[in-house]
Amino acid sequence: MAADYQRVVVLAADLSDHSEKAFNWYVQNFHKPENKVVVVHTPEYNMGNSEMSPSKIEETIQEANAKTEMVKSKFVEKMSENGMNGEFVALDDRNPGHAICKYAERVNATYIVTGTRGLGKFRRTMLGSVSDYILHHAHVPVLVCRLKYLDEKF
User: Fold this and answer.
1) How many angstroms separate the CA atoms of 72 and 52, rounded?
2) Where is the UspA domain (predicted)?
3) Best exposed site among 1, 124, 126, 146 by fewest CB in 10 Å?
4) Residue-wise burial string across 72-98, b where 16 or more C-beta atoms lie within 10 A, e elsewhere
5) 22 Cβ contact list (under 8 Å, min separation 6)
């Protein structure tokens, strides 16, 4: 029965160094062949001005979709290189942290892996932090890989 058990690991990803290094750290330190890794990404549609022209809105959407495809390509390739059982999922939500927590709960994830930029308290308060949101709202354990530590190791 235990051989059939498969952990679902949700790994938050974008095009940043902290995301890639968190993935690499997970692979080297936590990954097990029976784990199913779901790399999740929440596209950012920076619409800003509510009076944007339809062509500018379309351009913004195309840019976000292109970035999502880049994230997908990068991490699907990394999973393949490491012989991992996994998939890529783009989440549709304006709040990445909320989307990741909700998705992890829906797929009954064992835990979530995320990188962090290591923002100070003031910047984190002003800019928000996806990893901070996940850490405080997830219903499963969260593994937060700090970039400062990873810079020394990877």
Assistant:
1) 28
2) 8-146
3) 1
4) bebbeebbeeeebebebebbeeeebbb
5) 11, 12, 113, 114, 115, 145, 150
pLDDT of 132 over the 50 cut? yes
Residue 53 main-chain phi, psi, to 5 deg = -70, 155
Query: Which structure tokens are listed for 22?
Result: 């968190």
In the predicted model, is pLDDT for residue 103 greater than 60?
A: yes
Separation between Cα atoms, residue 134 and residue 138, nearest integer Å: 5
Mean per-residue pLDDT over the chain, rounded = 85
For the chain, the distance separating the N- and C-terminal CA atoms, rounded to the nearest angstrom, is 36
Residue pair 100/91 in contact (Cβ under 8 Å)? The answer is yes
- Give the integer Cα–Cα distance in Å for 125 and 121: 6
